[in-house]
Amino acid sequence: MSHSEILAASGLTEAELTGGTLAVHTPVDGSEIARLAMHSVAEADEMIATAHEAFLQWRTVPAPRRGEFVRLLGEELRREKEALGALVTLECGKIYQEGLGEVQEMIDICDFAVGLSRQLYGLTIASERPGHAMRETWHPMGVCGVITAFNFPVAPWCWNAALALVCGDPVIWKPSEKTPLTALAVQKICDRVCEQFGDDAPKGLTQVLIGERDLGEALTANPKVALISATGSVPMGRAVAADMSKRLGRTILELGGNNAMIVAPSADLEMALRAIVFSAVGTAGQRCTTLRRLIVHEDVYDALVPRLVKAYAGLPIGDPLAEGTLVGPLIDQDALSAMDKALVQAQAEGGTVHGGGQALAESHGAAAYVNPAIVEMPGQSAIMHHETFAPILYVVKYQSLEQAIDMQNAVPQGLSSCIFSTDVRETELFLSAAGSDCGIANVNIGPSGAEIGGAFGGEKETGGGRESGSDAWKGYMRRQTNTVNYSRELPLAQGIKFDI
Amino acid sequence: MSHSEILAASGLTEAELTGGTLAVHTPVDGSEIARLAMHSVAEADEMIATAHEAFLQWRTVPAPRRGEFVRLLGEELRREKEALGALVTLECGKIYQEGLGEVQEMIDICDFAVGLSRQLYGLTIASERPGHAMRETWHPMGVCGVITAFNFPVAPWCWNAALALVCGDPVIWKPSEKTPLTALAVQKICDRVCEQFGDDAPKGLTQVLIGERDLGEALTANPKVALISATGSVPMGRAVAADMSKRLGRTILELGGNNAMIVAPSADLEMALRAIVFSAVGTAGQRCTTLRRLIVHEDVYDALVPRLVKAYAGLPIGDPLAEGTLVGPLIDQDALSAMDKALVQAQAEGGTVHGGGQALAESHGAAAYVNPAIVEMPGQSAIMHHETFAPILYVVKYQSLEQAIDMQNAVPQGLSSCIFSTDVRETELFLSAAGSDCGIANVNIGPSGAEIGGAFGGEKETGGGRESGSDAWKGYMRRQTNTVNYSRELPLAQGIKFDI
Amino acid sequence: MSHSEILAASGLTEAELTGGTLAVHTPVDGSEIARLAMHSVAEADEMIATAHEAFLQWRTVPAPRRGEFVRLLGEELRREKEALGALVTLECGKIYQEGLGEVQEMIDICDFAVGLSRQLYGLTIASERPGHAMRETWHPMGVCGVITAFNFPVAPWCWNAALALVCGDPVIWKPSEKTPLTALAVQKICDRVCEQFGDDAPKGLTQVLIGERDLGEALTANPKVALISATGSVPMGRAVAADMSKRLGRTILELGGNNAMIVAPSADLEMALRAIVFSAVGTAGQRCTTLRRLIVHEDVYDALVPRLVKAYAGLPIGDPLAEGTLVGPLIDQDALSAMDKALVQAQAEGGTVHGGGQALAESHGAAAYVNPAIVEMPGQSAIMHHETFAPILYVVKYQSLEQAIDMQNAVPQGLSSCIFSTDVRETELFLSAAGSDCGIANVNIGPSGAEIGGAFGGEKETGGGRESGSDAWKGYMRRQTNTVNYSRELPLAQGIKFDI
Amino acid sequence: MSHSEILAASGLTEAELTGGTLAVHTPVDGSEIARLAMHSVAEADEMIATAHEAFLQWRTVPAPRRGEFVRLLGEELRREKEALGALVTLECGKIYQEGLGEVQEMIDICDFAVGLSRQLYGLTIASERPGHAMRETWHPMGVCGVITAFNFPVAPWCWNAALALVCGDPVIWKPSEKTPLTALAVQKICDRVCEQFGDDAPKGLTQVLIGERDLGEALTANPKVALISATGSVPMGRAVAADMSKRLGRTILELGGNNAMIVAPSADLEMALRAIVFSAVGTAGQRCTTLRRLIVHEDVYDALVPRLVKAYAGLPIGDPLAEGTLVGPLIDQDALSAMDKALVQAQAEGGTVHGGGQALAESHGAAAYVNPAIVEMPGQSAIMHHETFAPILYVVKYQSLEQAIDMQNAVPQGLSSCIFSTDVRETELFLSAAGSDCGIANVNIGPSGAEIGGAFGGEKETGGGRESGSDAWKGYMRRQTNTVNYSRELPLAQGIKFDI
Prior knowledge:
4 copies of one chain form a homotetramer. By secondary structure, chain A is of the alpha/beta class. Chain A folds into 2 domains: about 5-255 and about 465-480, Aldehyde Dehydrogenase, Chain A, domain 1 (3-Layer(aba) Sandwich), CATH 3.40.605.10; about 260-445, Aldehyde Dehydrogenase, Chain A, domain 2, CATH 3.40.309. Chain A is about 40% helix and about 20% strand. In chain A, the strands form 6 sheets. The first copy, chain A, has a 7-stranded mixed sheet, with helices on both faces. Chain A has a 5-stranded parallel sheet with strand order 7-6-5-8-9, sandwiched between helices.
């Protein structure tokens, strides 16, 4: 499909795509594909007010009925999977297979959220007082602001929105200014769902804010936004956290990762090789869960690393819409510069760089295609403590597993991690209290590509938030502890006596 | 028991109680009872470093064994209940019955935590990939800083410590500078437990920081403190949240409450009367869950409020150590001034004040005894949106339950709330998504006096944290999502194809 | 739609509907609508063997993929809702609205089960031994035999099948010999789903056994059937339990109910009236949750019972396919005789009968239409301890709630129960440990019409099984407790010393 | 300690120990140590009636208060650990270390149950109807009959009793007629706890039935016994199940095991060796979790089995009260005969027997000391499908893990199992849906010695029951699903329309 066909298939009209001030470029060839109108802060506040009105209605719609909304959303997404997947690719540059994968993740979380809509389990709890019933229920929280990053333009919204909607919270979405089109396309889908759903869906149940950082700040500043779920860089997360701390508002933060793999002597190297390549160069190294650090036991280093360098050399780089491409472009020229800079620093710190540098410069000069880089490092130096959003894989050696785990844990980020080993003593140690300090720790698979059934997120500078599966839905609700006295006495807890 | 007997029974030595710069006064008569040495920030950092070393050891002690530590702590507290209860009374001024209740709460949470120590349940989760096992485990988090307030000098520490210790986290406690003695006495108990427990208990498992605000800041600033659990005022909570947002650290905040009771026409007024008095004047109105706002249906207003005023007039005010006393002193003269000021403002806003003003001025002039106040208000005016830490109960009328709930929810705090009604339609509505917006919502009992089995905490400016029962223990651990591939294939989630 | 149109719309072919020995009559007019071939016991054993082979494959299909099968089943049921609902009405005689409701319940449980397919949560558990990980997982159980009754010909199958399939268990269905057509129609739907689903769905994943009691016995006798879930009468349940006890096999039993409503003085009588009529005469009194006993406080007896008798007199009885009908026929003449007999006994025990007796005898003589009956009883006599599957409602008076609860609990069955009261003290007492002894206890709704989100089933002679929501899915899986030692030591639990 | 000192320390009086018709022999030397009065069936029925009265009171005592009872029980058991442990050894013959371990298990479950007493969590559940609240609560069940076996004379009672008591169920205990003394000693401890506890503990809260099979039948026959939890042989379990099926009563069955270990090529053989010996000869092979089948990979067979034979030859057999003894006596001469018979059959089926036969015949002729036996088998023959309650370990070879798992699963019992392997692919497969079919499956530890935190029990002929940790407590309570309509409407589930 051509770029214009993809845009047409997205349902966005010419009028919507033009006439504004926010220029949208496709990383595929660097060309401008739209120029969108941006919202003002005042408009944002109006939209928040509408969302709050929606909340007052939506919270009393029974949760299974709210689940039906999300079920319909899932059905629409199934219908639009190819069209939306292609738009994802066009707008953010990831290969089409990954674009489809992102939409599939949206579908999966909708299915999951539908099931949740008949659960949202609180507890009934044994009370210490006769004639008293104690319980805990979970109630809708309020308007949920969702801030997303360019690299996953749609799935994280859906992780948040599917849960938030089922939990009774309207959603206002501030997408990256680099990927607003997919957001608008998803909003169109939501609009269709609203129509099918009927009157129970209040006006403003889902909304999109198009613009820049000031709109994110409009969300954090407005007390009617009960919750901000933000995906992005650590500085962005710090800013959101600082803003929200002023009003003691709630956040779910999914920030940077600096994800490692430990390759143990007993590892299946063939499998490790494939996992490394997918994890390190998938999405051109721009996943928050991208593999960035490879910690290889000295005994298998020589059996693995040269093969890896060779595999890198043969990777098909090019148009992410073309079949067969495995490495698409970086999002923009800034990303290319950051990559170049990091490689220079790595070399300065003793690293040996394989690959790197711009690719397809003649044919795609306006775009930011690069050769993925492997950097053999003498140790875990300063650059390795930073997340550079590009396909750079640092490789270091280790002698003992304890040392490898220490290296894995020595960075400020705490998102994802993995070990390749067939030794259960090693794998279980890696997953234990004395093992990886990340929110995600895998065995014999890479650090990326989480299933939606587990809770997704990480510790330390990654921000501590959890999205998606397990009991992540609790982040979107408020908990209420109830004690009901149905007796004719008034005993006090802890056996206190207080007789007036 | 005399004050000196109480001090002696606490196990604190003369040397410990004297020679420092932090003067401790008892609110019972305003006299100085100790002058303690304060820690410097440098010492605090050393103690944190020790605690971190303790963490590295303690996290690998099996949780049920950690539970045994807490069981022994509970046993020691049982033995020391009277001595510690009396010291609580001496230091913070609550009546002895409440002092005992606070220790009982410590004991209860220990029992509960012991049970938890064989649970700390994560999940095994169905994976979408063949030959893959997915699960979620909870691991120790790191050093836990606990900041507590004068009004509950010991129980909140224990809510935090019992859970934190079982969860694998050493605890550093910064008590209120107004109530450091009880903290030191509890640390003595912990020292004895460590001795009984043996080598598994690392040095620095529990520690106490004596001093002022700078020590709290030492905790929030130090990245080795993984978690701060802070109880206190909203400004204090905001400061902690802002500090922690800089390093994206974790907090559990239990801040101010502004708790209301709705009295419906069908209420059992006799029972309501008793609940109101205990909730409003217990701990001399200095509980975070103290009843501060009484929202009475117009049909029962006249049957209730005059009786309440009369009951207040007969309350025994005096030495909290004396049997029969129900109202002890405020913590200090500042609290008395704040109460006076609030009553002046309330009158300015149209209120009719019953009671108020200093009590026992002749006999206890250095102390801050007061007459609890009832203020009949024409509506929910500005003063009613503020938490004044004193026994002031504002009373307003309502016509419809929806209106009463709106008033209840209109304040910035969201800790505790209750309704007195025998109508199940009213009580369930009050507990529903459209009802109280507080973390605690009770029926036919007052807002205070929570059992430890439920999660304790509140929404909005109350800070969102939860302590004590239910799954509050999760706040002290880090969650890890694991996927283990035990097959010989490497399928990707969401069915993505990526073949190198 | 005519009967033949309904049959045609079901997808069953002429060849399938004729030529056998099992005559199927519609209770609508008593006419024969099919004559089906019956399976032999030998065929049943072959089908079980096939199902067991299916199990060995299906158990290793990832649960979320199994969930996709159930999602597709739900989609097909949405498409066939009207056709299948009409067939339900034709075959078992319940009114079309209830036929649709039954299919809706199938759809709902499919949605719920899809969500479960990414959960099936076991636990990770804190181990008392260093270097040990403890957890609990749930695994597929084996072939699940489902035995259903005529009155809910399709929904209970789906409650069981949706969960069993997601849990990894193939299903063999033995429907009532009175309602085999709907079972065959559902199997057709399953066949279509299998085709869409592809090779992951093994042959024999769902199967239907057409015939009589010997086929049920073939299921209970065969050790390859790991689990029998049976809905029906108490004698049937006892027989299944006795058979399964021989091989220590697992059962889920949903047997008789003898459901009561308590109407308290504070009840909303208007609402109670409507709830009573729906609960007592819906499905012509042939629900397992049908209201059979009405326990009315003496103070409201006269305000309620005469109105109820009057409402009964005006109920539209007739063709269940016709719009406006609220009372369709009994299943057959035997049911009519049983009703007559019960009314005779009730009179002998002092009851005053309102209504009762055959209706529409001239026009529908071959069918078993009846006038629903209300019987005012002097006390809870012998007949009231029995479940007569017909629209008979016994009414007794009570003085105190304790007495009413005692009456409610005095029967051998323990399925469903309810109270109409607006007094929260009464409603909570009714739901407490000292209240109703039934598996279901409702407030201000009737005993029937459960949502699929809760666990469905009852105690005592009702058999103790639970189906549908909550953690009922555990009944379809086997639990495994795992301890993994990843250390190099071999400590024993409980600190036992045993050194060789 | 001498036998008489042990008896004296147990608190049982001379009068209690003599004068009856039930002769109690110690397996230590075969001598008679007591002659107890037996209860009649009529007395049993009276005791059940008393227990039912106790139930009516106990169910309304708040669960945390019930937990306090169990906490006091745990404290008493701590005090009596040595005395009771010695009596266990004297009466059932297990070595003193194991006697202590059994009491420790009682203490552990008490600690766990105390924690549970503030949980007993049901669920609050999202309802599909507006103005409706759905929840699920767990209520006390009724009198719990506990039937125990000689080999664990006290711990299984406590697993059941600690949970049952916390759950609100009085307990009647029918111990093995071979080990009634420990039961009486435990009842003495309970009596002391009742005294400390005060009036909340009703008469008959725990009771012991001394006698034979007819008393077990008295429990199964009496409808006031809501639940039977029985530990013992498969025939006993079948009888209990058949009896209870008649009245559709509830059972928890812990029956026979036939537990296997798979030793893989990658296993730590040193560790395996120790685990095998403890699991196979501990309690003289009379644990339900005793290792009975050893499935060894052909590549390590020769490295393991000869060492094992040698280790067996050196095992210290003798007086279980003597320090250093690892193998005490069988319970009686019948057990010895059964062992001899099994070895004869094993030889007939091609086995090579190492060890076996009576030991210490001269010195302890009246007792049944034996040499533990290892039998190398050519394949898994008929005798290996049977549980012989004696220290016989059958050893077979395997080639592939799938084959080993098939052998492991091919027996009718399904209690415990384990694998020794360091290969995570093998260990996870063993724990997967396609792995062990047992209720317990371990890695790198033996099949015996479960911690109380996990659910204990097994599948197939083992009976399906679960005791001890996880949510096993649910087996002692009845579940109630509640829907509360607090609206003024009466919507029906599934959207059914039914307007009168």
